[in-house]
Amino acid sequence: MAHKLLWAPMLRGTEGPTYLAIAKAVEDSIGSGELKVGDRLPPQRALAATLGIDFTTVSRGYAEAQRRGLLEAQVGRGTYVKASKSPAFVASSTSTVDMLINHPPLFQNPALEKKIRESLESSVSDRGMELLMRYQTPNGARRDRIAGAAWLEPRIPTLDPNRVLVCPGVQGGLLATTMMLARPGETVCVESLTYPGYLLLARELGVRVMPVQMDEQGAIPESLDEVCVRDHPKAFYCTPSLHNPTAITMPIQRREAIVEVARRHGLPIIEDDNYWPCLVRTSRDRSLLSTAPSLASLAPELVYYMSGLSKCVSPALRIAFLIVPDATAVERAAVVLRATATMAAPLTASIATHWIETGLAEETVRAICAEGDARQAIAVRALGPDIHHKPDGGFHMWLPLQPPWTVLAFSTQLRLSGIWVAGTDAFSAGNMPDGVRLCLGAPATRGDFELCLNRVAEILHMRAYPVSQVV
């Protein structure tokens, strides 16, 4: 194909930033047929000289057109008009797909939405002014602790509500637990890829973090043993079920091996079980007890167990439940919770309890999981074997990157299409291969999600290393 060697847009009289005018001119020229698939655009410096503008303005204009799916750049070939293989996913300049936060997917269920709205008033009306005008105990009102024990019954059967503390979200519970177990300068070990919020928390507390290596089944017991012998950690923070970010669910044999190592070293475990409802779909389903039991059910004397409602019920419910080994730990945790947060917000705790008691929380979980399952199927169709493994539930996946892709190059290329992702560097406590987390709940609709994942797959399978847009 003969490539056009010169194309210069008419920018006189255009409004707004010049780089956006260049991108719009590319779009208009493609629409009019002036530019065709495969046509090469002039080098950026040549076009800048022709238009009498700065080189960086042209570079930004080309980058914006590339973000819109109009152009493609390859080493040795330049910038050319891209073939449209499928409907282009293009986020507007004011709207991006933010996969940096792992939102639960929005579901379409008007009847359930109506129940949720109506519940907000009824959830507090039966507690009267006592709820609004009195401070609660730092470990939470007894009714809220009973509701927490009932909610967690599939994970910790016959749970005594006196061992339950109501926390202002999982992050608040993790803060309190880490302060209980480790002092500044001491060590906590974590999975080699782990929740970024915990890495941030540890850094702010002055606690050292040591990685425990992982394989396709999660944390490796032998690696945990080595860290215990070498570094004498004060605790092991881990996410055995739907691990964040890899979505690995640790099988029972691996869980038992991890517990055996911890028992041998007297090592407390901080178990983050935030995603368990996505595995069982309903709190009445007890099958998970035999296939992937909580570490707290295997070693109640060692485990500080955390689970919240923000991920699998509603991010607006910043309520979590901390389960500690014994009465002494309850007293200590209550002191730390008072020091760090005074108490979980009673109004929010009341709503959470009402949702649990009436079954609304369970119904919401089912709606979220059904939408998550549908989006998982879309992701598998789009990415297939490129996905690390198909999770057993939930709404995030891990996408390993193969050379020549790096996290920086791949995430930069995605941002040009309006897609923001978190990569290995955000989750890593050690040296780990490059990859990114895909959050299935970020796009508002399944249609938007499918277009988004098709764009991710298209970029992943680019044969040539993309030209940097950094100047």
Provide an overview of this structure.
By secondary structure, the protein is α/β, with parallel strands linked by helices. The protein has 2 domains: about 20-80, Arc Repressor Mutant, subunit A; about 90-465, Aspartate Aminotransferase, domain 2. It is about 45% helix and about 15% strand. It is built from 19 helices and 16 strands. The protein has helices at about 20-30, 45-50, 55-65, 110-125, 130-135, 140-150, 170-180, 195-205, 220-230, 250-265, 275-280, 290, 295-300, 325-340, 345-360, 360-385, 405-415, 425, 445-460, and strands at about 70-75, 80, 95-100, 165, 185-190, 210, 215, 220, 235-240, 270, 305-310, 320-325, 395-400, 420, 420-425, 435-440. Strands 4-12-11-10-9-5-6 form a 7-stranded mixed beta sheet, with helices on both faces. Strands 13-16-15 form a 3-stranded antiparallel beta sheet. A hairpin with a 3-residue loop joins strand 1 (about 70-75) and strand 2 (about 80). Helix 9 runs parallel beside helix 10. The longest helix has 24 residues, at about 360-385. The two termini are about 30 Å apart. Residues about 1-5 have low confidence and may be disordered.
Characteristic key phrases:
single chain, 471 residues, alpha/beta, Arc Repressor Mutant, subunit A, Aspartate Aminotransferase, domain 2, 2 domains, seven-stranded mixed sheet, three-stranded antiparallel sheet, 19 helices, 13% strand, disordered N terminus
